[in-house]
Amino acid sequence: MKTDLQARKFNHVFKWFDQNGDGWVTQDDVETMAGLFSAVAEENDQKNRSAMKRGFPHWWTLLLDAREDKASERIGKQEFIRIMDAVVIAPKNFEIAVVGIVDGLLGALDRDGNGSLSREEYVRMYEALGIPPTTSGEAFRRLDRNGDGELSHSEFHQAIVEYYLSSDPNAPGNWLLGSLDALD
């Protein structure tokens, strides 16, 4: 059962997915998101591009299968939030849709293969996804739990889990997409 905090975060994810800003998430919006994410990877990085491209259609299928109006090919904000809570964050679905995308993204960004992201890699990633460097820079500082100037894959995974699953308003993962105050 989602908390008010999770509903706020899911609302932000809805706004991010609604790429054309028309108040609905459609297959075109999801494909645009997949394109934004996969474009972060180098052109010859098929492994990570494929992982991200697989995750988004799976996420879209979860949304479509759980919608109330089976005739509609679009999903409004309240239904999106309901489906996120009831279906997408269920452990099996979360692993395939969300974590699969994240693993591909991390693999694509960790170009030196050291198992972590530098602040510059992290900021560049979010800038490519439409999040300003000032927001992502502060988020990086909060997510770098051990303060070593690198965001390990495990720190990033922990942030993902906290963002989607935690009801703790003080969890560092709440900063994944910037300040919660900016979500309102």
Distinctive features:
EF_Hand_1_Ca_BS; EF_hand_dom; Calcium-binding protein; globular; 184 residues; mainly alpha; calcium ion binding; 7% strand; Recoverin, domain 1
CATH class placement:
Mainly Alpha
Mean pLDDT: 88
Subunit arrangement of the protein: single chain
Strand order of the largest sheet: 1-2
Secondary-structure element series: HEHHEHHEHHEH
Number of DSSP-assigned strands: 4
Give the count of structural domains: 1
Computed structural class: mainly alpha
Strand content: 5-15%
Mind explaining what this structure looks like?
The chain has eight helices and four strands. α2 (27-38) packs antiparallel against α3, α3 (46-66) packs across α4 and α6 (119-128) crosses α7 (133-143). It has a single domain, classed as EF-hand (Recoverin, domain 1), CATH 1.10.238.10. The mean pLDDT is 88. The strands form two sheets. Strands 1-2 form a two-stranded antiparallel sheet. Strands 3-4 form a two-stranded antiparallel ribbon. It is globular. By secondary structure, it is mainly alpha-helical. The protein starts with a helix and ends in a 19-residue tail after the last helix.
